[in-house]
Every structure is written in structure tokens, then in C-alpha cells.
Write a structure and sequence with these properties.
It is rod-shaped and about 190 Å long. The N terminus and C terminus are likely disordered. It folds into two domains: about 210 residues, Substrate Binding Domain Of Dnak, Chain:A, Domain 2, CATH 1.20.1270; about 200 residues, Pleckstrin-homology domain (PH domain)/Phosphotyrosine-binding domain (PTB) (PH-domain like, Roll), CATH 2.30.29. The chain is of the alpha+beta class and about 500 residues long. Strands 4-3-2-1-7-6-5-8-9 form a nine-stranded mixed sheet, covered by helices on one side. The chain contains twelve helices and nine strands. Helices cover about 55% and strands about 10% of the residues.
């Protein structure tokens, strides 16, 4: 009988053989039978490998909770720094209420932020001191369980292997003794007697079976205890997580109450409390009942001086030079003798005149009759005047006409919306022009305008005429007017033809 035949006599081989004939074997028995083969792993190695894996996953969970603890501790430190941002009491002077105002809310923000930091720090300490230490103890228990498996089933597995090896040796010796007996019967001794050798084999097989049964019982016991131990591991992990969830829920509820309290305190502050208190103790704020200033109420030197008050203001139409169409604009007649044209009647939009005419250097033509279709009058430059400041003088104009020693000027035509409006303008302009032509039915004007003009330094027509009222124009002037009427291309508008003989017009000069 060879060594393989000896191994086939073992209990494992017989069970495997019965299994091949259709008998059912439990999973544990198959595991044992598989792992107690001579050249296979020991049956305890599978359990050891499993709990080594358990040790790894518990270590991972320990690292996880340690990370959470670090996060909570970091949050606690950052929240503590954040609380230090709130500097109370306020140091910006006596600007806010000491109590019952915004400063109390800021005190609450600082203090309750520290409370939130303490909550995070408490959770971090709880995780470190309770959950992580509990899991570390669990990992130590796993190591102890692995060591117990190695001490119990590992030693029995080694003993089974030795007994099998010894059984194989004795069976081999029995075969040798039987061969000697058959070939050389006389050389058999008492020790090599096949009967004696067979008795040794039987005793060894009994011992081997007892060792194998002890290994099997130990494996069954180890498997049962390992199942219970693994269940306790799961329960320990669940307990650790439940503890973490409980403390986390408690911390979240506490922090939520803190945030809710801060929100409630901030929302309860009346928006105008601080301002009312501030306005009550400050003497430099403007009283809401103080009326707004009006520029009309401002008094300054020469505000009511007659020279700054307009003699007449309103809308007039002036004939354009080239298109010969009338354009309406806002005009102001000043006591200084200027007729100013503005783009608008609003001083804020038009503070400077677009066009100006100095009337003391001009001659005013007669107004149109009430029956005329167009209510207009003309203003002509004097021969020694400079005309409108914007357009400059036309000195040498008479020279261009071939008149030596004489100068002629331009003329402007103005039109009013009605005859009365035109006469208002004409009467006011009359008092400021150097000369004016009037109809036989003279219209006199008196009132505040004349008084303003006299106060500005200009003499009225009655005071300046002396004995010249009704006198005719000098011959030199007649020639200039006649020559100016012939200059249709150079003048801005066609001059009216004035006859001084028998048509009822006279020339008056308010200035001597």
C-alpha cells in the first residue's frame, strides 16, 4: 500500500467519497474537508483573513470620524475668529445707543457666535473621546479574536497534519512488513510482524480521528463565535453612528436656535430707533420744519437798482438777413440801452444773449399804423454809431457808397403779435434810441418804465428836446437815410421810406 492509499483511508477521504455517491454534506463539513488536505491552507486561515479585512474597514471608519472631529474643531476655531470681528462697544463716538439699540444686537452676535463655536468644539471632543476611542477598542478586540483563532484552530490543524503524516508512515511500514513476510518469512521479527504493525496503524488512526474531530469541533465553535463576534461588530458600528447622529442632531438644534434668536433680535429692532435717538441728541442737524430757501428772498447790494431791472421783456419777431423771414425770440430791453435777444425766457437755460443792439447809437423808425397787416417797426444805426456789438460797426459804409466823410448803418425790422404789443415795445425803445421818427398823432407814454429809464441816467424826450421838437432832420441825415434805402443788398431788411415834408412825421432826439 502506497502513501496515497494511506491518505485515502482518512475520514476526509471517506466523506468525500460518500459525497460523490450522492450523500449530502453540510457546508461547514465541506469547508473542513477541503481545508484539512495536506497541501492546502489551514482551515483557520479563512476566518483569520476575514477578520483582518474587518480590522481594515474599522480602521477606515476611525479615520472618517477623526476627519469629522478635525472639521468640527476647525469650524470652532474659525467661528471664534469670526466672533472677534464684532467689536463692541462701538468705538465711533457717540453715534449709537448704548442700550436698547443696534449695539445690543451686536453684543448678541458676538456672544452667540462663540456659543456656536463651543457647540462645534463639543461635537469634535465627543467624536474623539467617545466614537473614535470606541472604534479603536473594537479594532483591538478584532486583533484578539484573530489571535484566538490562531491559538485554537491553528494548533489543532497543525496537530492533524502531524497525525496524518504519522498515519501514513505506519501504513507504509505495514505494507513493507507484509511484503517481507511473503518473500522471506524467516526474516520476520516480532516488531515487523504484520499483525503488530496493523495494531499500530489502528491505534494511530484512532488518534488521528480524535484529533480531526477536535479540529472540527474547534472550527464549529470558532465559526459560531466568529458569527456572534461579527454581529457584535455591526452593532458596535451602528452604536457609534447612532451616537454621532444624536450629538450631531443636538448640536444642529442648538445652533439653529441660536441663529433663530439672532434673526428674531435683528428683526425686532425698529428701523428708526437709532436715527430718532441720534437726531434727538445732535444739535447740528437741520430741523425738518425749516423752510427751503428761495432765491427771491435773497438780498444783496444793488439788487433793486434801477439799472438791473428790465424796461421791457417779451416775445418779438426779427427779420432774418438772408431768408427775409421773421423768427420769434425772447427779447429784453435794459435801462443801459441794450435790446438783448435770448434763446429762452428761462435764465437757467439762457444766461447770455445771442444778439444785442445798443439803442443809444440807433434811430427808431415810426410804428406801423393800426390798419396795417403787419405790426412792425424799424431800428437803424446812426451814422456815427457802432451798431450791434455782435456784428460790429459798419464804418466806411458810406465810403462804399461814394459819400465822403459820411457813414451809414444797417437797419432791423421787428414785428409784434398785435398792434398794442408792438406799441408797447415801440414806446419803450423810443426812450432809449438816439433819434426816433414819429407820426403826427404822437403816442406818449408815462409810468414806471419812463421813471426807470430816467433813473438809469437817460433824459426823457421832454427834457432833452428843448426847442428842437418838430424840427426837421439835418440835411446830412436826409442824404444818409436816402442812400441807406438804396442799399437793398447790403442791409438786413428794406428800410422804410421817411419823408419829412408834408406827410405828418417829425424827427425827435431825446439826447442833445
Amino acid at each position: 500500500m502506497n502513501r496515497d492509499d494511506a491518505v485515502s483511508i482518512s475520514r476526509a477521504t471517506s466523506v468525500s467519497r460518500a459525497s460523490r455517491h450522492g450523500s449530502t454534506v453540510s457546508r461547514s463539513q465541506s469547508l473542513i474537508n477541503k481545508n484539512i488536505a495536506p497541501h492546502d491552507l489551514r482551515p483557520s486561515d479563512i476566518l483569520i483573513e476575514r477578520f483582518v479585512a474587518w480590522k481594515v474597514i474599522v480602521k477606515q471608519l476611525i479615520a472618517y470620524f477623526e476627519g469629522i472631529a478635525d472639521i468640527e474643531n476647525n469650524v470652532a476655531r474659525e467661528m471664534t475668529k469670526l466672533a472677534a470681528v464684532i467689536q463692541v462697544p462701538f468705538r465711533s463716538g457717540n453715534q449709537f445707543l448704548g442700550e436698547g439699540g443696534l449695539q445690543d444686537i451686536y453684543y448678541g452676535i458676538r456672544d452667540k457666535t462663540r456659543v456656536i463655536a463651543d457647540e462645534h468644539a463639543n461635537l469634535g471632543r465627543t467624536i474623539d473621546g467617545s466614537i473614535v476611542q470606541h472604534l479603536q477598542k473594537l479594532r483591538v478586540e478584532i486583533k484578539a479574536h484573530i489571535k484566538n483563532i490562531q491559538n485554537d484552530t491553528g494548533k489543532l490543524a497543525t496537530a492533524v497534519a502531524k497525525e496524518r503524516e504519522l498515519s501514513g508512515k505506519l501504513i507504509g511500514d505495514l505494507g513493507t512488513n507484509i511484503s517481507i513476510l511473503k518473500n522471506t518469512p524467516l526474516s520476520v521479527t516480532s516488531k515487523t510482524d504484520p499483525y503488530v504493525a496493523n495494531q499500530s496503524v489502528k491505534r494511530q488512526l484512532v488518534k488521528q480521528v480524535h484529533t480531526e474531530n477536535a479540529l472540527q469541533k474547534s472550527l464549529l465553535l470558532t465559526q459560531s463565535s466568529s458569527a456572534l463576534f461579527e454581529a457584535s461588530l455591526i452593532q458596535a458600528l451602528q452604536s457609534a453612528w447612532a451616537t454621532f447622529a444624536e450629538w450631531r442632531t443636538r448640536m444642529d438644534a442648538s445652533i439653529r436656535d441660536v441663529w433663530t434668536g439672532l434673526e428674531r433680535d435683528m428683526g425686532a429692532l425698529p428701523p428708526d430707533r437709532e436715527w430718532i435717538a441720534f437726531a434727538a441728541r445732535e444739535d447740528h442737524l437741520v430741523d425738518p420744519e425749516t423752510p427751503l430757501r428761495d432765491v427771491q428772498n435773497i438780498t444783496y447790494p444793488a439788487k433793486d437798482d434801477p439799472s438791473v431791472l428790465p424796461v421791457h421783456s417779451g416775445l418779438l419777431e426779427r427779420k432774418k438777413r438772408y431768408t427775409r423771414a421773421y423768427r420769434e425770440a425772447y427779447y429784453v430791453l435794459t435801462p443801459a440801452g441794450f435790446l438783448h435777444e435770448y434763446a429762452s425766457s428761462d435764465p437757467a437755460q439762457a444766461d447770455r444773449p445771442l444778439w444785442s443792439l445798443f439803442l443809444p447809437m440807433c434811430t427808431l423808425g415810426p410804428p406801423s399804423s393800426p390798419q396795417a397787416k403787419s405790426h412792425k417797426f424799424h431800428i437803424e444805426e446812426r451814422k456815427d454809431g457802432v451798431g450791434a456789438p455782435k456784428t460790429g460797426s459798419f464804418r466806411g459804409f458810406a465810403g462804399s457808397l461814394g459819400l465822403k466823410g459820411r457813414s451809414a448803418g444797417r437797419a432791423w425790422a421787428f414785428r409784434g403779435r398785435s398792434h398794442d404789443d408792438m406799441m408797447e415795445w415801440w414806446n419803450d425803445v423810443r426812450m432809449l434810441c438816439a433819434r426816433y421818427l414819429v407820426a403826427s398823432e404822437q403816442m406818449e407814454r408815462s409810468g414806471p418804465v419812463a421813471a426807470a429809464v430816467r433813473a438809469a441816467g437817460y433824459v426823457s424826450e421832454d427834457e432833452g428836446l428843448d426847442d428842437e421838437e418838430g424840427s426837421s432832420v439835418e440835411e446830412e441825415d436826409d442824404e444818409v437815410y436816402a442812400e441807406a434805402r438804396d442799399m437793398g443788398d447790403e442791409d438786413e431788411t428794406e428800410l422804410p421810406s421817411y419823408t419829412h415834408g408834408g406827410h405828418g412825421y417829425s424827427v425827435r432826439r431825446p439826447y442833445s
